[in-house]
């Protein structure tokens, strides 16, 4: 069953029923202020940090699901309903939700009254705008009561969920005219507050939740709305909310609009006020004045749409495949932007409290984002580097507001340092900006400990060099990319401690995956050194890369595939000698992407083993056979039931690694076949199975061992987005930024006649036309730039004017 359809012209997904298999969400905001909004108007807003500066509450694990949001109640005689259906769930005569790029609209009808609500965050300001339009499509005069509703979070979302003994006494609000000021915490900080405003004279208000709903009621059946009269309650502690009441009279065919603003306001730090609860309302008044008319709001929405049109014009394809065009041109790039902004912090699967910005995660997210706004990618790289330790290791996460390492998660994930090299090289390849390497970055956010970004990369590289185990393979530490593969938690030697942060001196676990990662991005670091004329360092680093390749092929090869790791007792993991977990996806993908074994047949053998043992109709499973019992020596991976998450789930994040690997060995047919399996746009017809949004990639899909085989989870915030975009744009379509220019090296299905691509690169627009007359899968027969045949398939970025015409013939 389908629950909607794609509107490519407007770059929207149109949902035609509120009863989707799961809440299908969208993201509002592009810079500092963000909102999550579901297809029933659920969700919440925050400024910069979903944990520390959350404006409104959301209840995870609630029943009914997707409770709390921005709600508007319409009381039409005895009928009470919401344009987004929740929370009253009154049956609607019609319903439509359109999720666009940075905005969502809801259009519903009930009893000859049409309601349209548009929600978005403007480009330049910290406010969510809700424009609600009511139209009387009956032949009679309608007299209505309109009530708004949001529930304020007391800023720190984690404390808001737990510290009731304090929070029940701290909530403070103030109401002036049509503006509700939420000033809890202002007494402490004296520099920030939230507003909830409507551009209309109000007939009443409420700011106390229990008064609005009734103490034993819920937002689904609030006392105030049922009575049609607000109680003008002012919250003192307990649970503050914002609700406006407006009486509306509409003649037949008459419309009225109302603009609601939920905004974050902050005074300048130097501003002080005599009374701690008296706020400076000037920032709020300034914000309200900018969005008080329909014309102002419509202009801001058009600016947002233009912003996205311009961003997406930087990479745009035209192929014979409508679904591929839709994915590449709109939704995949959009998700890359969202994931860059959010990392893994705030979604309907991430509470926004447990995680900040991931060191590994954000470095990978850059791969799909850097072409959109390179300046923000540059800033992010420096933020990440500033949290690194002096020995080259790193905090696993940092907080987006404070930009300091997350002490609760800590460090010890030994793949993290290498991802900084990956993200930085991706930025330099995209921009040619080597000056970023000269930027001074702190260690552990300590202003007294600084070095250039280049030195940070050097220490990232050398951290792996100096942290190897008995097989010459990198120490895994707490874990590598697979956070649930914890191999240092048990050994045969009672009382033996495991060294995870220094050179091997005892039983320690090693990672073949990190070895492949080191080879892949070690090669890029070598090239970087060569570009900087650091020839001696380049030679020394290349020697370390070669040594690692030897260690992989000598100790990391199991006969038909690459071993995953060695545990603390030097027992192989991901080997035919294991009863369960004999083959893992990660080491196959990363080692082949690093071109280990391409020349001697190992790579082809490994990919054949993946196809034979890990492939399913919904994608490639992480490992097989699934673990059926808990293994202390493996850690968390075996705590999941078979088929879920890291225990033989289909991890969509690393499926692209296999797709990239298939292109490296020239298998265009196989690469595109696999690409489609985890792409939600190609799964729209199995939505009752897949369940998550048909426009957003998942982190994982249940594997064949799971009762819910094919079911998606953890949509939106996943490295799947960036890796899939890099895979399709750089490896399949083959338009790949490189240090020396734009490399064209497609690997496509043999039945593809060709395609066109517009690619903005280093200030120039490349119109690329690829033809495949002989229907090959890989190989560039000729390449012309502005009619001139090129000696290689790398286009020198100095060639041509602002617009460059590129003709590529495969063969």
TrEMBL record:
Pfam families for this protein: GH94_b-supersand, Glyco_hydro_94
Keywords, in A-Z order: Glycosyltransferase, Transferase
GO BP of this protein: carbohydrate metabolic process
Domain Glycosyl hydrolase 94 catalytic: 307-734
Ranges where the Glycosyl hydrolase 94 supersandwich domain occurs: 11-292
SUPFAM superfamilies reported for this sequence: Galactose mutarotase-like, Six-hairpin glycosidases
Gene3D superfamilies linked to this entry: 1.50.10.10, Glycoside hydrolase, family 65, N-terminal domain, Maltose phosphorylase, domain 3, mpn423 like domain
InterPro entries noted in UniProt: 6-hairpin_glycosidase_sf (IPR008928), 6hp_glycosidase-like_sf (IPR012341), Gal_mutarotase_sf_dom (IPR011013), GH65_N (IPR037018), GH94_catalytic (IPR033432), GH94_Enzymes (IPR052047), GH94N_CBP (IPR037825), Glyco_hydrolase_94_b-supersand (IPR010383)
Highest taxon of the lineage: Bacteria
A GO MF term: carbohydrate binding
PANTHER family xrefs: CELLOBIONIC ACID PHOSPHORYLASE, CELLOBIONIC ACID PHOSPHORYLASE-RELATED
Record's protein name: Cellobiose phosphorylase
Protein's organism: Lachnobacterium bovis DSM 14045
């Amino acid at each position: 069953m389908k629950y909607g359809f794609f509107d490519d012209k407007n770059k929207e997904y149109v949902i035609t029923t509120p009863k989707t298999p799961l809440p299908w969400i969208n993201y509002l905001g592009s810079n500092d202020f963000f909102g999550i909004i579901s297809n029933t108007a659920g969700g919440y807003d925050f400024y910069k940090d979903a944990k520390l500066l959350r404006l409104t509450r959301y209840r995870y694990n609630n029943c009914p699901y997707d409770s709390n949001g921005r709600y508007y109640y319409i009381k039409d005689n005895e009928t009470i309903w919401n344009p987004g259906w929740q929370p009253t769930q009154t049956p609607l005569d019609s319903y439509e939700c359109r999720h666009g790029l940075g905005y969502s609209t809801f259009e519903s009808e009930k009893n000859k009254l049409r309601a349209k609500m548009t929600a978005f965050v403007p480009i330049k300001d910290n406010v969510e705008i809700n424009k609600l339009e009511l139209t009387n499509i009956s032949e009679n005069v309608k007299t209505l009561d309109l009530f708004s509703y949001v529930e304020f979070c007391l800023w720190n979302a984690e404390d808001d969920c737990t510290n009731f003994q304090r929070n029940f006494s701290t909530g403070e609000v103030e109401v002036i005219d049509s503006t509700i000021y939420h000033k809890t915490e202002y007494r402490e900080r004296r520099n920030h507050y939230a507003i909830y405003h409507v551009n209309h004279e109000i007939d009443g208000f409420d700011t106390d939740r229990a008064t609005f709903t009734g103490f034993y009621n819920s937002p689904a059946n609030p006392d105030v709305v049922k009575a049609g009269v607000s109680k003008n309650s002012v919250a003192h502690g307990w649970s503050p909310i914002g609700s406006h009441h407006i009486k509306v009279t509409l003649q037949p065919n008459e419309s009225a609009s109302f603009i609601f603003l939920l905004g974050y306001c902050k005074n300048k730090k130097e501003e002080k006020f005599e009374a701690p609860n008296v706020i400076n309302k000037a920032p709020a008044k300034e914000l309200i004045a900018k969005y008080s008319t329909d014309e102002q709001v419509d202009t801001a929405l058009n600016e947002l749409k233009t912003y996205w049109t311009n961003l997406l014009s930087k990479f745009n394809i035209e192929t014979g495949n409508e679904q591929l065009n839709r994915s590449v041109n709109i939704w995949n790039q959009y998700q890359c932007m969202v994931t860059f902004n959010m990392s893994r912090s705030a979604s309907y699967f991430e509470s926004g409290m447990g995680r900040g910005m991931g060191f590994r995660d954000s470095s990978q997210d850059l791969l799909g984002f850097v072409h959109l706004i390179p300046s923000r990618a540059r800033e992010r790289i420096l933020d990440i580097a500033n949290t690194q330790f002096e020995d080259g290791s790193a905090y696993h996460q940092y907080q987006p507001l404070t930009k300091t390492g997350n002490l609760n998660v800590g460090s010890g994930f030994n793949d993290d340092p290498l991802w900084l090299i990956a993200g930085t090289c991706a930025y330099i390849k995209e921009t040619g900006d080597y000056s970023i390497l000269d930027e001074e970055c702190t260690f552990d956010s300590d202003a007294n400990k600084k070095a250039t970004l280049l030195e940070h990369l050097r220490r990232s590289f050398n951290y792996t060099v100096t942290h190897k185990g008995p097989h010459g393979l990198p120490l895994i530490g707490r874990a590598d990319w697979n956070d649930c593969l914890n191999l240092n938690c048990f050994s045969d030697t009672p009382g033996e401690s495991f060294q995870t942060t220094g050179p091997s001196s005892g039983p320690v676990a090693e990672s073949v995956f990190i070895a492949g990662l080191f080879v892949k991005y070690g090669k890029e670091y070598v090239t970087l050194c060569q570009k900087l004329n650091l020839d001696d360092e380049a030679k020394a680093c290349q020697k370390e890369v070669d040594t690692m390749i030897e260690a992989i092929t000598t100790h990391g090869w199991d006969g038909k595939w690459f071993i995953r790791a060695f545990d603390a007792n030097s027992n192989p993991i991901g080997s035919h000698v294991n009863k369960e977990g004999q083959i893992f996806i990660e080491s196959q993908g990363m080692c082949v992407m690093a071109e280990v074994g391409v020349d001697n047949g190992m790579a082809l053998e490994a990919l054949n083993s993946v196809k034979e043992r890990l492939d399913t109709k919904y994608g490639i499973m992480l490992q097989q056979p699934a673990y059926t019992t808990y293994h202390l020596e493996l850690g968390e991976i075996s705590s999941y039931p078979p088929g879920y998450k890291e225990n033989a789930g289909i991890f969509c994040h690393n499926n692209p690694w296999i797709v990239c690997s298939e292109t490296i060995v020239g298998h265009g047919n196989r690469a595109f076949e696999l690409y489609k399996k985890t792409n939600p746009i190609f799964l729209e017809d199995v939505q009752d199975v897949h369940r998550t949004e048909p426009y957003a990639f998942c982190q994982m899909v249940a594997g064949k061992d799971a009762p819910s085989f094919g079911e998606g989870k953890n949509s939106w915030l996943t490295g799947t987005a960036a890796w899939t975009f890099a895979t399709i744009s750089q490896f399949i379509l083959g338009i790949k930024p490189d240090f020396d220019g734009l490399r064209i090296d497609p690997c496509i299905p043999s039945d593809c006649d060709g395609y066109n691509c517009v690619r903005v690169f280093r200030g120039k627009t490349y119109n690329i036309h690829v033809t495949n007359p002989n229907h090959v899968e890989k190989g560039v027969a000729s390449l012309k730039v502005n009619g001139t045949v090129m000696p290689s398939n790398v286009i020198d970025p100095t060639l041509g004017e602002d617009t460059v015409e590129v003709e590529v013939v495969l063969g």
